[in-house]
């Protein structure tokens, strides 16, 4: 039997962004386009400072200005007019490319988010039932929803901002280098400090944000579980106790976040001190050079503005790194989930026709790494017959049904359908031929008709009604205000247990499967409804292989054969009359149940 622990494997990926680049190669052209648009936008963004310098140069030098020599226009008014026209064009271009870049990055982020969520959810659906049973729903939901959203936020604005910061250093550095190497060195002096500080903060923030994402998963799991078990919480007046558990989990999240915030908040003040050094150097030494005549006044004004343009955006490095670290922690959790591998894989055979003959040969099975639950079980259900499996709690009945549905595989032996090992069949070739009614019925939010037609979405309304009639559900459905269009709340909580079971039975009947598997299908109904369902089962099981598990022996007394399990072994088998006639666990259980009924 397959199993899985709730601890995710350690990711082997070199870097989360590199892994995304490999996974989503279809978007590489759009990524390149986004970078190109951001680059053009940034070039346009730097131009106004150069134009300001040119304007000052025109005012100071007149006919000897750079603009005059470039355009051959000696009149200062015309020079300023030309600069105004160029400035307007630059602003229009910057606004246009800002819009295009934002549109491209955001659409790209949305598409990657969409694809990654579908990939993650699809992967989760393919994992073994044992994996799902060993992991809280909230923990999985935190990855599929919260972590994917965290990545989307980074791709939406974070990548663009990082690229813009890098471009800013390059473009402004080019202007400084063309003006004065001395001022370039002095203005850029704080940048190594900022980079080293950023790397140091990044290393400090990484484990902190991993802890934040872990506490988020714990809160999601706790709240999700509590909302699903609200009836139990209320019935045991445990509201305060559960509120305290949520408070503890929320406090853990708050403290983990506070730890990360303390580290990230210290970053900007340190950056400001580094900026102060660079700006002071440009202001002071550049001013002296302009006064001494070794630096043009217009160029000095450009460099003063450019120093601000160079260094001040670096104050946002902390915020961008904060976004980056949160996203990388999330991506690592997503990749760890995608690293989980299903142990139960489908085969490649899809038979054209199935008669429904089931057989277990020397089957030994158990849960995860625990002891065997089933021991050397041999069992045959001929095609078209109704067989029942009974026994005390813990006898292995549910484990047997899990094997028939191939929610897990046996540790030894074989489970066969029409003589074919289930491991050779595709999911459609196996589960597509089975109608299953679980003991814990799950109904989806939607209409009653949608829930009945879940296993056969193209069914007509007449077919849906017919299935409901066969499951003895039509009467209560038609009595509802909107009939088959009545909305069913989450998990069908607005219906009684018996109503949910009858709808689940209708859902299985509508599928018209070759094999019908019923796990305590009448456990939540009264005696009158049970008798009605038994009559409908007698009709729908004709010519159809049916395996039912039941505690109430009155449900299975008309089965063609009854298998009695005890401690994971088949201890008896026969018809109801044969088993009652001879001493054994079945006859003892029958006596207890009929005696209880007589009382």
UniProtKB/TrEMBL annotation:
InterPro entries: AAA+_ATPase, ABC1_TM_dom, ABC1_TM_sf, ABC_transporter-like_ATP-bd, ABC_transporter-like_CS, P-loop_NTPase, Type_1_exporter. It is a multi-pass membrane protein. SUPFAM superfamilies: ABC transporter transmembrane region, P-loop containing nucleoside triphosphate hydrolases. The keyword Membrane applies. Residues 358-592 form the ABC transporter domain. Keywords: ATP-binding, Cell inner membrane, Cell membrane, Membrane, Nucleotide-binding, Transmembrane, Transmembrane helix, Transport. One of its GO terms (cellular component) is plasma membrane. One of its GO terms (molecular function) is ATPase-coupled lipid transmembrane transporter activity. Residues 32-326 form the ABC transmembrane type-1 domain. It is found in: Cell inner membrane. Belongs to the ABC transporter superfamily. Siderophore-Fe(3+) uptake transporter (SIUT) (TC 3.A.1.21) family. This is ATP-binding cassette subfamily B protein.
